[in-house]
UniProtKB/TrEMBL annotation:
Protein's name in the database: Isocitrate lyase-family enzyme
Pfam families in the record: PEP_mutase
Tagged with keyword Signal: no
Keywords: Lyase
Cytoplasm recorded as keyword: no
Amino acid sequence: MNVPTLHQQLRQQFRSRLTDPTRGLLHVLGAYDAWSARLMEWAGFEAIYMSGFCVAASACAVPDLGLVTMSEMAQHADAMCSAVRVPVIADADNGYGGVNNVRRCVQHYERAGVAALQLEDQVSPKRCGHFPGKEVISRQEMVAKIKAARDARCDEQLVILARTDANAVEGIEYTLERGWAYFEAGADALLIEAPRSLLELEKISHVFSGKIPLVFNMVESGLLPQLSAQQLEEYGFRLVLYSTKVLLAVTTYMCNMLTQLAKQPTTTLPVLPFEEFLTLIRLQDYRDMDV
């Protein structure tokens, strides 16, 4: 009898959590590296989201315009999955090319250990879902990508999260048709990016609630006002991603701290005690294993 690996167990755990209607909304923060993922796990979050926006900014200091390669993203996914023992949802952008690129992307991400993979329908180069000027591929091409992603995974528990950015390009009615096509193609969850009104949320809920797990991307300064957890649950959402919240918070603190230090380098600032940092980074675990 084969014993499931940790990554297989985490995929099963995440799929069960996502599809169980008796459990509440799952709140997941966007991580920008393995360390931020570790701290999210320490704080008690059930899962972690590897945000492409955050990785592009933190690793390369570039905007989310498709500038980070698949191999770079897969390396970050591997580092995050190695750092934590909770499910990791990984942003895979548009699969980094055509159908064959999607297959290779899924294989690399699965080997890295992710529990779910988010695949979107933007053209290359893609851009952040809340940036203007987006373009989308045809519905048929995205359906082919979803089918390719399903075929490429070795573990059927790996969740394929289909995301559509068509709302800003084609309007909500065509976007709903795309979402339904992605559902029929075998997507395990659906994210309709950047809804622009509560009426659009109602339409999304009416078509998909109870049929496929719905995911909401909560972006600071996005196109839709901030919604409460209760509101999102009432619309039928199962998972909410706070993709940029931590990166923006960390950046705010660093800018303030660095400004103070630049003016007066000897300024004493509140920081985590060094011994507590060593505990979080699990130094003793490595000492215990050292021969």
